[in-house]
Write a structure and sequence with these properties.
heterodimer; A: 83 residues; alpha+beta; Glutaredoxin; two-stranded antiparallel ribbon; 3 helices; 3 strands; 31% helix; 17% strand; disordered C terminus; B: alpha+beta; 4-stranded mixed sheet; 5 strands; globular
Chain lengths: 83, 154
């Protein structure tokens, strides 16, 4: 969640929301949360696990439809984009 | 319930004294007086009182730097809507009087508490520590982008 917060600090377009999954079970179920950290971009694309900065930024951009050169992309070792 | 024990409060005060350089504004969106019972969304708020205590302790650890605005969503639902806050309790962390774009929905305990402390310190220092490459990539974002991170206390 630290990376999401740092993105929000750096980019005025970004809002980071850290959600306590157990406290909001309906919301967690809505976004298919089974493991944490579970990151959801614009309530669409999602990935599970902690990513390095470069991959996290790439996943956020891909989540809003912006292609990234050299990004691991969907199906990467710890990413699960889509849904 | 005391969310943060006295020795942690003292540690926090000492830490903030060293690390906070600029102002930080916290906004707590809450539903005061709500039952601690788990009720359907919009009725109860099991952790609102604890979240208030946590937000006040953060403010009290560095009152000269940290300000706190409490929004009662029962009385001011328009404010929550305008700030795009979806549920309570939510603590928003920002650098000025506006609702911050770093938010913690639910009581930030466990792994989330250090993240909240870090967020306060980073906002105070305007220190994102992202690489130039990351900043160049983020500059491609032209539309509002919400990054939701689900976490658990353990």
């Amino acid at each position: 969640m630290s990376l999401a917060n740092r993105l929000a600090l750096a980019a005025p377009q970004v809002r980071a929301v850290c959600i306590e999954a157990n406290e909001f079970p309906r919301l967690s179920a809505q976004f298919g949360v089974r493991g944490v950290p579970h990151t959801v971009i614009n309530r669409g694309g999602a990935f599970v696990g902690a990513l390095p900065e470069r991959d996290f930024v790439a996943a956020v951009l891909e989540g809003v439809g912006i292609p990234v050169d050299g990004a691991p992309g969907p199906g990467g070792p710890s990413t699960e984009l889509g849904g | 319930m005391t969310v943060i024990p006295e020795h942690v409060r003292a540690q926090l005060k000492a830490r903030f004294e060293l690390r906070l350089t600029g102002p930080v504004h916290l906004t707590l969106y809450t539903r005061p007086g709500s039952s601690r019972l788990i009720l359907p969304a919009g009725l109860g708020c099991a952790t609102c009182e604890d979240a208030r205590q946590m937000a006040e302790l953060l403010r009290d650890a560095a009152p000269e730097k940290v300000t706190l605005d409490v929004v009662d969503t029962n009385r001011d639902s328009g404010r929550a809507d305008a700030d795009q806050v979806n549920d309570v309790p939510t603590i928003a962390v920002g650098a000025n009087g506006e609702s911050g774009r770093i938010r913690f929905q639910g009581l930030p305990t466990g792994t989330e508490f250090p993240a909240l402390i870090e967020a306060v310190e980073r906002v105070s220092r305007a220190e994102h520590s992202l690489s130039a490459v990351s900043l160049a990539e983020l500059a491609k974002l032209k539309e509002p982008t919400e990054v939701m991170v689900f976490a658990t206390p353990t």
